[in-house]
Structures are given as structure tokens and as C-alpha cells.
Amino acid sequence: MNFEKARFNMVEQQVRPWEVLDQDVLDLLMTVRREEFVPAAYRNLAFADVEIPLPCGQVMLKPVIEGKILQALQVRHSDSVLEVGAGSGYFAALLAARAEWVRSVDIEPELVRLAHDNLERYGVDNVIVEEGDAAQGWPERAPYDVIVVSGGLPQLPRALLDQLRPGGRLFAFIGEAPVMKGRLVTCVEEGRFHSEDIFESLVPTLRNAPRHDAFRF
């Protein structure tokens, strides 16, 4: 496979037509080598418009979804980022290329090892991958400028929002099958939030996802 041609086609034929027009995001998807984070058995699908299976019933998000999330979050070089759900480490690598540092937390030890090993091999040095249940946040390094929840949540817990700095942005998939909303929440000021559903999708629900204490907008 010609990876460079496939990467170009992914950006120009999948991501850009889905109204991902931020050139910094498109350049990032061209720069970070997605194939380095895809399980060997699926490497020929690294740039396809599909979710790629990972251990523990999880998936790598479609490239168009990754592009949409990055465009919505507008990550800056001074940002501290919490990623809930480490996956293969690819999305953490994308975030790390834009942020000051990223803390990626996953409840599954196998995914923690996978993400850590991929990021280390790729030379990413501003991501810490930890094992734990961060479905209601990770207070140790809070508050954060950006929080990304890569798995589904039936409801958005108040605890996650309480860990955002004023001006901070949170992205999460909210709801249950057959449809989830890709939701962007901005902390306008302490205790006040603006919410916008920016697309629909369906992803595996986080293990131990809370079903109570939802924030009402």
C-alpha cells in the first residue's frame, strides 16, 4: 500500500468533504502517521472510512470523526488535556501535537499497554497513559483546558464538567444506541456552560459509564 497516497485521499476525500476545513487539523492528519497506531491485522484499513477494532471491544474512531472532534476543540499549545479512553494511542498523539500535555486514562490494562507502547515507539513524550476509571473525570491534574471522552456516555456527568477551566472545552458522545450525539461543551465561566450537538454517531459505551448525576443544561 502507498501510505502517503492513502493518507492524502483520506484527508481530501473523507475528512474535508465532511466540513472539516481547519487547515491546521487537516495538516495534523497528514502529519501523524495513523498506520503506526493500527493493529497489524487491520493495517490495510488504516485510512478507510471505518471503525477499526481494538482489544476489549473498543474501536479506533473513523478519520472523519477524529477530524470533526479536533476542529471543534481548537486545541492550543498551552492546553492541558484529559483523554478518557486511550484506545490505540493515535488520538492522544493528535492531541499531543497541539497541546502542552495530555493525560490519557483507560480502565482496560491491555489498552493502556497498547497506547503506551505505540506512543513510546512513535516518540511522543508529552502524553502520560494511566490505568483507571475516568468516566467521571480524573481529579489528580484537574482542572483541564480540554477533556475528550472517546467512548459513549448515556448522560454527561457533572463531575466531568467541574474539571473544566473557564474557557475549557469538552467533547463526548452522549446517548445510547442506535444514535449518540457528538457534543461540544464550553465552560463559559465557572459553573456556566454552553452545549452544542455537532454531529451524530455511534461508538462503544464506556465501561462503568455513570447513568446518574447528569448535568442539565
Automatic annotation (TrEMBL):
GO biological process: methylation
Gene3D superfamilies, A to Z: Vaccinia Virus protein VP39
InterPro entries: PCMT, SAM-dependent_MTases_sf
One GO CC term on file: cytoplasm
Pfam families hit by this protein: PCMT
Molecular-function annotations in GO: protein-L-isoaspartate (D-aspartate) O-methyltransferase activity
Homology family: Belongs to the methyltransferase superfamily. L-isoaspartyl/D-aspartyl protein methyltransferase family.
Protein name per Swiss-Prot or TrEMBL: Protein-L-isoaspartate O-methyltransferase
Organism: Pseudothauera lacus
